[in-house]
Write a structure and sequence with these properties.
Elements lengths: L2 E2 L2 H13 L4 H16 L7 E6 L3 H15 L3 E6 L8 H8 L5 E3 L10 E5 L11 H12 L3 E5 L21 E5 L4 H4 L3 H5 L1 E5 L7 H5 L3 E3 L23 E5 L7 H13 L3 E6 L4 H7 L4 E4 L2 H9 L4 E6 L6 H13 L3 E4 L1 H5 L5 H8 L6 E3 L3 H7 L9 H12 L2 E4 L5 E3 L5 E3 L12 H14 L4 H19 L5 H6 L1 H8 L2
Parallel strand pairs: 2-3, 2-5, 3-4, 5-6, 6-7, 7-8, 9-18, 10-11, 10-13, 11-12, 13-14, 14-15, 15-16
Antiparallel strand pairs: 1-9, 16-17, 17-18
Helix pairs in contact: 2-3, 2-4, 3-4, 9-17, 11-12, 17-18, 18-20
The structure holds ligand NAX and potassium ion.
Length: 490
């Protein structure tokens, strides 16, 4: 598991480490050295400008300046505010720097090959303006290689949001663990290449801090992926149902059904309205087809407990059609994956949806994009942090919430969350979301817990996109899954 620590949790990690006997200045020395090591990939002779702020982020900059100067680099250091404002470890680090300290405005950004951004890190607590904002704009225009210390200044560590203006770094060096703001947008774009340096903080502090957010990597969910038995049977792998829309909108459900079969379900049935039976029949092979007469028909189908997971929403249709179907699904004992029209069907009365989720024995996964999210959670949509949005929505609804985007975030009602950073931009194509819903459905049908299944699906979907490359269409994604699964186990 690759935990993501908020700035507050990171401060706690520092505090626990210092309390256990490592002086803060030692942590700062190691942090500054890690920055210097990254900067030193540029050849000797490169001019280096180091912009230091008034807190410990600036302290790291002073340490890096001293180490790089000692290695023979030409270093110029500029400070925001007076030396007399520095406190604690930052003051100690500044005292050990024997070179000149100029004001930030005097730093020669344009004549430098590398700029070290040590203005603000985890302690950024308000919008950047004035002299610091002007310096950041100059840094961004400089054309130099920009190495940010801990966070690109202006990026909020918890949310990835820009507070006023932010450095666009070539590389960022952070310490111990990355923060949500390194992977959430737009932070990730400002971070550039990320190095996570070991500065001597012990892993054991994580037991005390108990962080609840992680990077969406296989470590986060692989232990929950069902293990296939040599003597296993398709009936051991669950039976998923996908609900088809009417005659002219059947493709989305078929994409989801196909993906559910690829991702893990032993059997998949497409439940089709009578008018769409012929068109669905013409397109299905391994996916089975059953006639479904409205919500009563779906309820009857799902009364067979072997059908243990149902996905609906893609191409489901208008509210009058979609809502009774969703209600029937939620009244059944099956796990439910709700997407698209299935979510929008409750836009006028989201509480009605949450009331139906509360107390159900089987889990519900909701997969909104930003627009669908805003319909169900209008007040939460305005929150600045995506992690916060997903978590509060999960807590309110009782469902696992998967909030889509380049930084797709999955949260469960207890606050656990994972953030993905592996989605290539060409995943944004028609039907991609239907496929994602299907992958989740197949994994849940196979017996994977809903939160882990949603996380795994996001990662698998991203990797499938990466394997296929530009030019992919949604039909290809599910078919790339065997290749992605194979790579997972080598
Ligand atoms: N012992 C520790 O706590 C360690 C901290 N480290 C470094 O310390 C950093 C955190 O240090 P701090 O908590 O001092 O925080 P920062 O150095 O990130 O910033 C805090 C300072 O900036 C000011 N400030 C915040 N937002 C501002 C704005 N928009 N405009 C103008 N001034 C603003 C604050 O008033 C305060 O003086 C980390 O990012 C990391 O680089 C590392 O040295 C590792 C060890
Ligand atoms: K910084």
């Amino acid at each position: 598991m690759i935990e993501l620590l908020t700035p507050a949790e990171m401060a706690e990690a520092d505090r626990l480490t210092i309390a256990a006997g490592t002086p803060g200045i030692e942590l700062m020395e190691t942090a500054g050295r890690a920055v210097a090591d990254v900067v030193a990939r540029s050849p000797l002779g490169t001019r280096i400008a180091i912009a230091c702020g008034p807190g410990n982020n600036g302290g790291d900059g002073f340490v890096a300046a001293r180490i790089l100067g000692g290695r023979g680099y030409r270093v110029q250091l500029g400070l925001l505010g007076g030396l007399d404002r520095l406190k604690g470890d930052a003051a100690l680090a500044a005292a050990a720097w024997r070179g000149e300290v100029v004001s930030l405005a005097e730093l020669d950004f344009h004549g430098s090959g590398v700029i070290v951004d040590a203005l603000f890190g985890a302690g950024l607590d308000r919008e950047i303006g004035g002299e610091a904002a002007r310096a950041i704009e100059t840094i961004n225009r400089s054309g130099a290689r920009i190495v940010a210390v801990d966070l690109p200044s202006g990026i909020q560590g918890e949310t990835g949001q820009v507070l006023g203006v932010a450095v666009r770094a070539t590389e960022t060096v952070t310490f111990f663990r990355a923060k949500p703001g390194h992977v959430l947008m737009p932070g990730r774009v400002h971070v550039g290449r990320l190095t996570v340096a070991d500065i001597g903080i012990r892993e054991t502090v994580l037991e005390r801090i108990a962080p609840k957010a992680a990077l969406n990597r296989p470590e986060a969910w692989l232990p929950s992926l069902p293990v296939l038995k040599v003597d296993g049977h398709k009936y051991d792998r669950g039976h998923a149902v996908v609900v088809s829309g009417g005659m002219t909108q059947t493709g989305a459900a078929r994409l989801a059904a196909h993906a559910a079969l690829r991702s893990g379900a032993g059997l998949v049935t497409l439940a089709s309205p009578p008018d769409a039976l012929a068109v669905n029949a013409a397109h299905l092979t391994a996916v089975m087809l059953k006639r479904m007469d409205g919500a009563d028909g779906l309820a009857a189908l799902l009364s067979d407990r072997r059908l243990n997971a149902v996905g609906l929403g893609p191409g489901l249709g208008a509210i009058e059609v979609a809502r009774p179907l969703v209600e029937a699904a939620l009244a059944s004992p099956a796990a439910v994956v709700l997407d698209a029209d299935g979510l929008s069907a409750f836009k006028a009365e989201p509480q009605q949806l949450f009331a139906r989720i509360a107390g159900r024995p089987a889990p519900v996964v909701m997969t909104p994009h930003d627009g669908e999210f805003a319909r169900l959670f209008p007040d939460l949509a305005a929150l600045p942090g995506k992690l916060d949005r997903a978590r509060q929505a999960a807590a309110r609804s009782g469902a696992v919430v998967l909030l889509k985007g380049a930084d797709t975030t999955v949260a469960d009602p207890s606050g656990r969350a994972m953030i993905a950073d592996n989605a290539p931009p060409y995943l944004a194509t028609a039907g991609s979301g239907d496929t994602l819903a299907g992958i989740i459905l197949g994994l849940v049908a196979e017996g994977m817990p809903a939160f882990e299944a949603a996380g795994a699906a996001v990662w698998l979907h991203g990797e499938a996109g990466a394997v296929l490359g530009r030019g992919l269409i949604a039909e290809d994604l599910a078919d790339a899954l065997p290749r992605v699964f194979t790579r997972l186990f080598v």
